[in-house]
Write a structure and sequence with these properties.
The protein is of the alpha/beta class. The protein has two domains: about 120 residues, no CATH class; about 230 residues, Alpha/Beta hydrolase fold, catalytic domain (Rossmann fold). About 35% of the residues lie in helices and about 20% in strands. The strands form two sheets. Strands 4-5-7-6-8-9-10-11 form an eight-stranded mixed beta sheet, sandwiched between helices. Helix 9 links the parallel strand 8 and strand 9. The longest helix has 25 residues. The protein is globular, with a radius of gyration of 24 Å.
Length: about 375
């Protein structure tokens, strides 16, 4: 490759900037170790037969349907780990296919398809790229710093700036001891669907430790929820200045563990601002029963994290208000970036399906007569 960046470095950059893109690294000079390759990248050593390339192209699609639209463009990058183009090598292989029962027309048709695939990938990667940015805000009224990880798809951001799109807004609240930056697997699903996503760091090292006082409302955590509510309102005010072309009147509240309780508490206090709620194992704050809100909740099977009585709705209430409760075989801490890839992919797929059912338009009715899912499908699970 020309310039100072080799193929392995290019693959790393692509993985960081465009996570959905599948990566195929090929070289004949050395065999990189797995630790040298980006996550989920595949290696094809040179020289390789056309059948090897065809086998890679024909492999099963990724199970992460949150990126299905990207996959539909043909998610493949061919990057040479050593300087120089792979095209001459591919042409050489194609030229020799006559002895293997191929004619030249068919061989070059394959070459044309590969070139079109690469071109389509470039366009798809540019179109679907998600921008992440950290905002280090400061609330002068409360003298409190608030860190926010913002994610948005670049093309939708441009549409919003040009007045062709109003970005729906998703607010993510972190679980206790989990950083706000550890929910990128959720951020990317929302951003891929055109959302402006703000993952808020709700906790500071100087905050009192999270306590549980049995017998008190919300086990004594009302002060924590009120503080987090103030954080969310402050961040919304700042986002309106930064990105005025977003819909701040119909929020999607998201949260894991204590952050899930924060999401549910905020929706209870500000029902006129919230249209959807997604929680991952919230344990303390009862579900909001409101037909105007669509709710999806993932529940872990972790014996160390028990849901308080009265938090979950009855099956009759869930059906009446269109609440989707997903029982998973996952541990509580797996419901973040810390979880195994397969667990995160299952959650992404279900979340993407949920968002597909609930359109972002203010005018689209929310279906409540068809619960999404009652239990995760069969494994295997990690």
């Amino acid at each position: 490759m020309p310039g100072t960046m080799d193929g392995l470095r290019l693959a790393e950059v692509v993985r960081k900037r465009w996570p959905p893109v599948a990566l195929l690294v090929t070289t004949g000079r050395f065999r990189p170790q797995n630790r040298d390759l980006p996550e989920d990248a595949h290696f094809l050593p040179k020289p390789y037969m056309l059948g090897d390339l065809k086998a890679y192209l024909g492999r099963p699609r990724p199970t992460n349907v949150a990126w299905q639209k990207v996959a539909d463009f043909g998610n493949l990058i061919l990057s040479g780990a050593a300087p120089g183009s792979m095209l001459p090598r591919l042409i050489t292989i194609l030229s020799s296919t006559r002895t293997r029962g191929w004619n030249m027309k068919r061989a070059f048709a394959v070459l044309a398809c590969v070139c079109l695939l690469a071109g389509g990938l470039y366009a798809a990667a540019s179109k679907w790229a998600i921008r992440h940015e950290t905002l280090n805000l400061f609330d002068p009224v409360r003298q409190r710093p608030v860190s926010v990880d913002v994610a948005v798809r670049r093309d939708y951001e441009r549409k919003a700036d040009d007045g062709y799109w109003k970005l729906p807004v998703a607010i993510i609240s972190n679980g206790n001891t989990v950083k706000n930056t550890e929910y990128s697997f959720l951020e990317n699903v929302f951003a891929a669907r055109g959302y402006l996503v703000a993952s808020i760091e709700q906790d500071l090292p100087s905050d009192p430790p999270l306590m549980t006082r049995v017998g008190l409302p919300y086990v004594g955590r009302i002060g924590v929820y009120e503080r987090s509510e103030a954080n969310i309102l402050f961040v919304l005010g700042q986002l309106k200045k930064i990105q005025p072309h977003a819909n701040y009147d119909h929020l999607t509240m998201v949260g894991h563990s204590n952050g899930g309780d924060v999401a549910m508490y905020f929706a209870k206090e500000h029902p006129q601002m919230v249209s959807k709620i997604i929680t991952l194992d919230n344990l303390r704050v009862p579900f909001v029963l409101n037909k105007k809100m669509k709710i999806l909740s993932f529940r872990s099977s972790d014996p160390h994290f028990k849901t308080d009585p009265g938090v979950l709705p009855t099956p009759e209430q869930a059906k009446l208000d269109g609440i989707d409760i997903v029982k998973t075989p996952f541990q509580h801490t797996w419901l973040s970036d810390r979880g195994p890839e397969e667990a995160k992919e299952k959650i992404q797929a279900t979340l993407d399906k949920f968002l597909g059912k609930t359109a972002t338009s203010d005018l689209s009715p929310v279906a409540t007569d068809n619960p999404l899912i009652a239990k995760m499908g069969p494994g295997p699970y990690p």
